[in-house]
Amino acid sequence: AQTVTQSQPEMSVQEAETVTLSCTYDTSESDYYLFWYKQPPSRQMILVIRQEAYKQQNATENRFSVNFQKAAKSFSLKISDSQLGDAAMYFCAYRTSGGSNYKLTFGKGTLLTVNP
Amino acid sequence: EAGVVQSPRYKIIEKKQPVAFWCNPISGHNTLYWYRQNLGQGPELLIRYENEEAVDDSQLPKDRFSAERLKGVDSTLKIQPAELGDSAVYLCASSRAVTGVYEQYFGPGTRLTVT
Fold this sequence. Notes:
- In chain A, 0% of the residues lie in helices and 52% in strands.
- Chain A is mainly β.
- In chain A, strands 2, 5, 6, 10, 11 and 12 form a 6-stranded mixed beta sheet that branches.
- In chain A, strand 8 (64-69) and strand 9 (74-79) form a beta hairpin.
- Chain A starts with a strand and ends with a strand.
- By secondary structure, chain B is mainly beta.
- In chain B, 0% of the residues lie in helices and 48% in strands.
- Chain B has no helices and 11 strands.
- In chain B, the strands form 2 sheets. In chain B, strands 2, 4, 5, 6, 9, 10 and 11 form a 7-stranded mixed beta sheet that branches. In chain B, strands 1-3-8-7 form a 4-stranded antiparallel beta sheet, with no helix packed on it.
- Chain B is globular and about 40 Å long.
- Classes of the chains: A mainly beta, B mainly beta.
- Chains A and B meet through strand 6 of A and strand 5 of B.
């Protein structure tokens, strides 16, 4: 079974600075998808960025980028020019690309605080 | 487009009472998911629907939990009777399809407290 590990329960960053959130996963599959979701307090979870495992190029969405290391099974999220609105719980998630198991497997999350 | 709608947003009940959660997915989304998120944890899938068919309910505690998705649109998740350990946030999500990298869109969730 796939597992996702987020080793940083909490992180903090100063506004306008850069922060990196870590995620590792365990799988025997060669093709899969990885996601970072953001969950603000009492608000719904939204997708921040996704990476397809067969793509070597790291995904980028504006101030958000990932460092995908397939061999190391590592998928970190970098947030540049942090803003107060980035404060939230961030979840790393894994999803198989084939077969019949399409559920998202989530890590336990990292609570990000942005200090003004 | 309107997002995934869930109600109620909050529910407090005593143990052994029944409770039901309602979800309206994004229009045109055939796949609907129910997740449970315990405090300090990531969401865990309870059940997945393809249209009106439950195609993955392996994680649903069937002795007390039930779900339905009539006409392949709205869905209801029920717990009867509720136990203290059922206190959690119940999230509904939907996507256009299962295959491919179709994004799952989440609703705001229902926070259940069982006393």
